[in-house]
Specification:
The structure is a single chain. The protein has 3 helices and 59 strands. By secondary structure, the chain is mainly β. The protein has a domain of about 325 residues: Methylamine Dehydrogenase, Chain H. Strands 1-26-25-24-23 form a 5-stranded mixed β-sheet, covered by helices on one side. Strands 52, 53, 54, 55 and 56 form a 5-stranded antiparallel β-sheet that branches. The chain is globular, with a radius of gyration of 25 Å.
Length: about 675
């Protein structure tokens, strides 16, 4: 048996031992600067003295950073942590014993990749693209622009070029970002696997891939996407593939990050989750050669070696972050640390001002918050209650010729807002669910609070329950019959995430419907004394950017450019449903219903489309009232038949009355 195990290991280089030097919880990233090691460990940024490379000494750690994912460092002593649905965290690390969180930035969506160069910060926001942020004032970062890509997982910058690893698409997108307000794509590289980590050294680009291959016989692609590809990007408009090196086939659905790190002297380290770390000689990039392999300890519950989420070269060592087992170090001959130099001059503060462009020729009035993005909006008469992210909760008058701010409420971060009679419910992230009484549009009185991380809320017209999500795996059903004492009654999770607005915005026949992006639908009964889980349909049917709405007495769902009207608590499988094809375009986005009109807002591409569903078997788009925005539109409202659109960093947009009158 020993000989059978040893043979495949030799193919990928000599197996080297490693040892765990710190287990403070899950570790997601590591970086080395000089004599210091920075690590995301236990959802904190921890710092170690590595003057003795094999004996890291703990110096200090930051406050908790929920769902920390990747780490970038700026040479003047600041760290930048992407935290998925919790955005970007900026940490002052000039005193390594006392790292201090100095600010947070509300990213367009799921901040996964992070890169910093001078005063520019780049965030890979998965299916929403790469967000470019002005970091000239680190206590108040500002949105510059959004470079839309298929699914950005990791980003790297060299000179005026931005490289983005695209996950499911299996691509590298290359953009010219000399003008960060208007990034310009110049090339797209296809990879033979799902895309993720990228590293750059000189004229070489290294791309780590995983999951499934895109080439070869279909029956042999599953799990065969793991490896590293090397490109010559000296002519970035025409990248040249030099080599493809494959790692052992593997598939694990939840650990989907692959990280290359180029090392001076012609070496390359690649972290490949459960496959461990591979060290290759790339002195001849056309013919890479395996030198060493490092495996972390086995996780008994998985029957696999722990997944390596990050790797960083030190002096004669590699530092590894393990998803379950913590931080590790391995002695590796020939390894030396990278010397990092920043390339960009400071970004002029005018950049942030330039990005605050008006709605251009679009037929809208625009309200632009002084700070933050308009994530969601609710109406009460002619007053809009806007959840403006780090701009807090704001009330805006819609009666004036120009929309006018009435009041900005001192809420640190408002992700969502819902109204019921004289009550206002606000999703305030890690500060929980806030409940307020509306005395006047400019007077809110705190009533109750539930200390539960909440970023999305759905409030049906009937019953006394509220549904909420932290945009991770759980859906919470909360009793708000007594608003002064809200109670969590039901917590439900299933495979996948509630990425965004994936629950019906109302109830139908006493039921609400939710969609986990790859785990299928779940019904919830909310018309009784206690909420109950109804029928489960464990099929991956709808995209995680498509929502659900109540349409008259049915629930409208979208399924890969088909749609259905479901009765309350409809059972699966979907083959027994009447799924209608779309004959006149493409149906995508988060729906809002007004009579027979349905507005679909799509954050990923900025589109807002109005459709007429008078004929339910053949709905028709209304092109004159469909738009492509610069911002990231959320679930819209109708104000006197006009569209009111929360458009992210483009602000709050109200369709001009003349546009509606002209079309009518």
């Amino acid at each position: 048996m020993a000989a059978e195990v040893e043979a495949p290991l030799c193919k990928y280089g000599k197996l080297l031992p490693s040892f765990c030097f710190e287990s403070r919880g899950p570790a997601l990233a590591v970086e080395v600067r000089g004599r210091l090691l920075y690590a995301l460990s236990g959802n904190r940024l921890a710092i170690y003295d590595i003057s003795r490379p094999l004996q890291p000494r703990f110096l200090g750690e930051s406050a908790p950073v929920r769902n920390a994912r990747q780490l970038a460092l700026r040479e003047d002593g600041f760290a930048f942590v992407s935290a998925r649905e919790n955005g970007l965290w900026i940490i002052d690390v000039r005193n390594p014993a006392y790292p201090e969180v100095i600010s947070r930035y509300d990213s367009v969506e799921m901040a996964t990749g992070v890169e910093v160069d001078g005063n520019l910060i780049f965030l890979g926001n998965r299916v929403y693209g790469v967000e470019i942020v002005d970091g000239s004032d680190l206590r108040r970062p500002r949105h510059i622009s959004l470079y839309r890509t298929p699914e950005s997982q990791s980003v790297r910058k060299a000179g005026h070029l931005l490289f983005s690893g695209e996950w499911y698409a299996g691509e590298i997108r290359i953009a010219d970002v000399r003008d960060p307000v208007f990034p310009r794509e110049i090339a797209c590289i296809r990879l033979d696997g799902y895309g993720d980590g990228i590293d750059l050294l000189g004229s070489l680009c290294f791309a780590a891939t995983g999951h499934h291959a895109h080439s070869g016989p279909a029956a042999q692609r599953f799990g065969h996407g793991h490896g590293v590809e090397i490109f010559d990007v000296s002519i970035p408009e025409s990248p040249k593939r030099l080599s493809v090196t494959k790692f052992p086939p593997l598939f694990h659905a939840y650990n989907d990050f692959w990280t290359p790190r180029a090392i001076p002297g012609g070496l390359l380290a690649v972290a490949d989750t459960h496959n461990g770390v591979f060290l290759l000689s790339v002195a001849r990039p056309e013919t890479p050669r395996f030198l060493y392999r490092i495996l972390l300890p086995e996780v008994p519950a998985l029957g696999l070696a722990d997944a390596v989420s990050g790797v960083a070269p030190g002096e004669g060592v590699l530092y590894l972050s393990g998803v379950t087992t913590g931080l590790h170090v391995a002695e590796v001959p020939g390894v030396v640390p990278r010397v990092h130099t920043e390339q960009s001059a400071a970004v002029l503060p005018v950049v942030a001002a330039r990005c605050r462009r008006p709605a251009s020729t679009l037929p809208f009035r625009q309200y632009q918050p002084e700070y933050g993005q308009v994530r969601e909006v609710e109406l009460r008469g002619s007053v809009a209650f806007a959840a403006c992210g780090q701009g807090g909760l704001q009330t805006v008058s819609l009666e004036e010729s120009a929309m006018k701010l009435l009041r900005r409420w001192p809420i640190p971060c408002a992700y969502d807002v819902k109204l019921r009679q004289d009550l206002l419910f606000c999703a305030e992230g890690n500060d929980g669910l806030g409940i307020y009484r509306i005395d006047q549009p400019d007077a809110l009185q705190p009533v109750g609070r539930l200390p539960l991380p909440v970023q999305k809320i759905w409030l049906p017209d009937e019953g006394h329950f509220l549904a909420a999500s932290n945009r991770e795996t759980e859906l919470f059903l909360i009793d708000v019959a007594d608003p002064a004492a809200p109670r969590l009654l039901l917590e439900h999770r299933q495979q996948g995430l509630l990425y965004g607005d994936l629950v019906s915005n109302g109830s139908c026949g006493g039921y609400m419907l939710a969609n986990w992006h790859c785990g299928g639908f779940a019904w919830f009964r909310i018309d009784g004394r206690e909420p109950e889980v109804g029928n489960l349909i464990p099929e991956s049917l709808a995209a995680h950017t498509d929502g659900i709405a109540v349409f008259h007495n049915r629930t409208l769902i979208l399924c890969n450019n088909r749609y259905a009207f479901l009765e309350a608590n409809a059972a699966g499988p979907s083959s027994c449903w009447q799924l209608h094809p779309v004959h006149r375009g493409v149906l995508r986005g988060i729906p809002t219903v007004s009579g027979d009109l349905v507005c679909f807002a799509q954050r990923t591409d900025g589109s807002v489309q109005l459709w007429d569903f008078h004929d339910r078997l053949d709905p028709r788009p209304i092109p004159e009232r469909s738009f492509r925005l610069e911002g990231s539109p959320g679930r819209s409202c109708f104000f006197r038949n006009r569209l009111l659109i929360p458009a992210g960093y483009q602000g709050l947009l109200l369709e001009n009355e003349q546009n509606v009158t002209h079309i009518s």
